Amino acid sequence: MHSIAADITQQWRSPMLRVAQLHLPSREEAEDAVQDTLTALLLLEPDSFDPAQAKSYLFGILRNKISDRLRQKYRAPLSYDEAFNDDLDQVLFDKRGHWVDGVAPASWVNPQQQLQNDQFFSIVDLCVHKLPAKPARVFSMKEFLECEADEICSTLGITKADYWQCMSRARKQLQLCLHQNWFDQERAT
């Protein structure tokens, strides 16, 4: 189990750290959440763990570790300026606006569409990159961490109305950005 854990740690530590940094206020807290997650891996019985399921297992535990920390942090409400003053770019994207390795959505296996998919995801990257921090955090918890609305509201200390407003705002901004930068461009060619 030790060599498997070392391989899994090497493969998934950086992607988990980037996700944790998106949601936690400091690198130290993100590091702690990732370390707690990897420690849980080491505590497993060797026969009870399927390495093929490492991603879902690790990110499931990480989600809980992040949620626990966020519940403590977001008990007090943030001002509007504080809530929208994060830099999502540095966590998810490189200097050219492309997904950081390990964070990008998985590509489909069809090789004929790979180039088109890569181009599409580059546009998605740019669009997500443009979201304000609060809607980006709510959207990523819903779509990347697969949290339920009640859990997001509880964790971030927001109302259901605020949750729906953030999700609506994120979806509308992503839709507009994708239409301007992908779908309208695709029709023009």
Quick one: overall form?
Answer: globular
CATH-level-4 superfamily name of the largest domain: Winged helix-like DNA-binding domain superfamily/Winged helix DNA-binding domain
Terminus-to-terminus distance: 52 Å
Poorly predicted spans: none
Please tell me the CATH architecture of the largest domain by its name.
Orthogonal Bundle
**Main beta-sheet annotation:** none
Mean pLDDT across residues: 76
Radius of gyration: 18 Å
Helix share of residues?
55-70%
Tally of individual helices = 9
SSE pattern, N- to C-terminal: HHHHHHHHH
Q: How many strand elements?
A: 0
CATH topology-level fold name of the largest domain: Arc Repressor Mutant, subunit A
Could you say how many structural domains there are in total?
2
**Name of the CATH class of the largest domain:** Mainly Alpha
Structural class: mainly alpha
Short description:
With 189 residues, the protein is mainly α. It is built from nine helices and no strands.
How would you describe this structure to a colleague?
With 189 residues, the protein is mainly α. The protein folds into two domains: 1-73, no CATH class; 78-189, Winged helix-like DNA-binding domain superfamily/Winged helix DNA-binding domain (Arc Repressor Mutant, subunit A, Orthogonal Bundle), CATH 1.10.10.10. 69% of the residues lie in helices and 0% in strands. The chain has helices spanning 2-23, 27-42, 54-73, 80-83, 88-92, 114-129, 133-143, 149-156, 160-188. Helix 2 crosses helix 3 (54-73) and helix 7 packs across helix 9 (160-188).
